[in-house]
Design a protein that fits this description.
The N and C termini lie far apart (about 40 Å). The protein is α/β, with parallel strands linked by helices. The chain has ten helices and seven strands.
């Protein structure tokens, strides 16, 4: 499967949000996934977002180069036709969202980082870059299972979605993206000319809280919000994440009219 842009749709009753009052066009939200590079773990969030948000997920190629410099053109192409859009980068994709924001696209209204980083989330792991091979990446499903059990967020839906993820994404692609994470460093060239929201999980042990502080120190105007949950809080606590995202997008689209009964009104 090559790279592709997936349009994610939801029923009007998704997440309990009422339809918008005005007939204005929807607001686009471009979703950039985590290390898996798929739309799979975005599904609960999509069910919780209101219908006035038109969400699209950029999926990453499962073969070939998967470094940030290789994936940035895919993100750029996904956004170029948007009249106005917000960009959400989850974990692995946070640097990609910031790289695009640094180009100052005129249509960009705001950036959301979720459980992400601007340099390797644990400083000492940078030295392990050469060890991030496909053979090592084969153990990621076992690590994921252990984290879910330890963090007590495993469920039938999560087990199903995790199995689908590992069946779609080969270890070689995961290893390539892991090497990109271990090499990234945006601290000296970070620029974001639009509002920035950082969402972190209260129990995230993969991307600890000092990563959110690093973003806030580099971009003082950034807003940091903590929701209950692990590294996958967008998945396990999608309703809370959606409320925060909806409020942020409302503030970034002045003049729009939304249903007063919806969260963030």
């Amino acid at each position: 499967m090559g790279d592709r842009l997936v349009q994610l749709r939801r029923g009007c009753g998704g997440g309990g949000h009422a339809p918008e009052v005005s007939s204005t066009r929807r607001v686009t939200l471009i979703l950039l996934p985590g290390l898996d590079g798929t739309d799979i773990f975005f599904r609960p969030l999509l069910a919780a977002l209101p219908p006035w948000i038109e969400a699209h997920c950029v999926e990453y190629p499962v073969s070939g180069p998967n470094d940030y410099r290789d994936l940035l053109p895919l993100v750029r192409n996904a956004c170029q036709a948007c009249e106005e859009f917000f960009l959400l980068g989850w974990s692995f994709s946070g640097p990609l969202a910031l790289m695009l924001a640094a180009e100052s696209p005129a249509a960009l209204r705001g950036v959301v980082l979720c459980a992400s980083f601007i340099s390797p989330p644990w400083p000492f792991i940078r030295a392990l870059r050469l060890a991030a091979t496909a053979s090592v990446a084969r153990f990621l499903p076992f690590v994921s299972r252990a984290l879910a059990l330890f963090g007590r967020y495993s469920s039938d839906d999560f087990v199903r979605d995790r199995a689908e993820c590992w069946s779609r994404v080969p270890p070689s692609a995961l290893a390539a993206r892991a090497r990109a994470v271990l090499a990234v460093d945006l601290r000296s060239r970070l620029a974001c000319g639009v509002p920035l929201l950082y969402i972190r999980g209260s129990k995230d042990i993969i991307v600890p809280p000092w990563n959110a502080r690093a973003v806030a120190n580099a971009i003082p105007a950034a807003r940091v919000v903590t929701i209950d949950g692990p590294h996958l809080a967008l998945y396990t606590n999608a309703a809370a994440a959606a409320d925060v995202i909806v409020d942020f997008m409302r503030q970034g689209t002045p003049g729009r009219r939304f249903d007063a009964a919806s969260p963030g009104a």
